[in-house]
Amino acid sequence: MSKTSNIMRLALLQLKGSKDKVANVQNAVSKIEAAVKEHKPRLITLPECFNAPYGTKYFREYSETIPDGYTSLQLSNLAKKHQVYIVGGTIPELGENDAIYNTCTVWSPTGDLVAKHRKMHLFDIDVKGGIRFKESETLSAGNDFTIIDVDGHKIGIGICYDIRFEEMARLYRNAGCEMIIYPAAFNMTTGPLHWELLQRSRANDNQLFVVTTSPARDTSAEYVAYGHSMVVNPWAKVQQSASEGEETLVADIDFSEVEQVRQQIPVFGQRRLDLYATEKKST
Ligand SMILES: O=C(O)CCC(=O)C(=O)O
C-alpha cells in the first residue's frame, strides 16, 4: 500500500487489570471509546494480558479462541464502529490441539482480524532475589513473524520478552518496518533495569519507532507490572512516556523521522553483509 500520510496518531491505553475478565474487557472498551472521542487516534494499543491476571496458573482458565471469543468480538466491533486500528494487547489464546498461546490480535477499521501474533520467545527467567517466571509451564511459543500495513507503513509486532531478541527486530527492519509495537508487562525487577534501555536499543539498532503498552502498576496484584508505556523515536529518544497508573498516552508519530535518521546515519547500507547476516529461516 502506498503511504497516505507521514503522521499517525496513536493512543496507548495503560489499563489496570483484575481477576474479572468481563470487567477488564469492559474497562478496555470504555477507555477505547473515550480515547476515540477525545483524541481521534488512527491506531490504539492495549497492554499484554489485558483481559486476565498475568500468571501461568491463569492462562488456561482465561483462554479464548480467536477470532470468535468474547474479547475478540468486542475488539472487532469497536474497531469497526470507530474505524480505527486496534493492536489488541494480548490475551491467552486457546489454539490447536489444546495449546495455549500469548497472542496479540490486530483489528482493522472494517473490524477484520488482520493479524495474530503469538509470542515467539516465552518468558522463562529466574533472577535470584528478584523474579522467577516460567511461561513455558503452560504456554506454547508462536513460530511466525507478524508485520501489518497501516496506511502504507509497515509495523512489526512483538510481545514483551520478544523485545530482548535483537534478531527479531532486525528482521522486521530488514523487511521494511518503520515501527515495532510490543504489548508488554515488565515487572519491578527487570523494569527499572531494562525497560527503557531495551526500547531505546531496538529503536537505535534499527532506526525505527518502538511502542510499548504496559498494564498499569497494581501493587496488590500477584504480578506487579512496571507501567511506563512508551514511545521511542527512530533517534532512540523517548518521545513520550506514561507514569505508573492507569493512563491514556496520545502520541503523534511523524514517520518522516525514520527516513531522516536512516539518511543521516546510514548504518543499514554500511553493514558488512559479506561477513555476517541475520536471516529468517524457512520453517
Ligand atoms: O523480559 C522481561 O524482563 C520481562 C518480560 C515479561 O514480563 C514478559 O515477557 O511478559
UniProtKB/TrEMBL annotation:
Residue ranges constituting the CN hydrolase domain according to the UniProt record = 8-255
Q: Name one GO molecular function term.
A: omega-amidase activity
Any idea of its EC number? 3.5.1.3
Q: Which reaction does it catalyse?
A: 2-oxosuccinamate + H2O = oxaloacetate + NH4(+); 2-oxoglutaramate + H2O = 2-oxoglutarate + NH4(+)
Q: Where does the chain cross the membrane?
A: none
Q: Which GO terms describe its cellular component?
A: mitochondrion
Superkingdom, according to UniProt?
Eukaryota
SUPFAM superfamilies with a match to the protein in the record: Carbon-nitrogen hydrolase
- Give the UniProt record's GO annotations in the biological process aspect: asparagine metabolic process; glutamine metabolic process; oxaloacetate metabolic process
Q: Which Pfam families match?
A: CN_hydrolase
UniProt KW keywords? Hydrolase
Q: What is this protein called?
A: omega-amidase
Naturally occurring in which organism (per UniProt): Drosophila simulans (Fruit fly)
- From which lineage does this chain's organism come? Eukaryota, Metazoa, Ecdysozoa, Arthropoda, Hexapoda
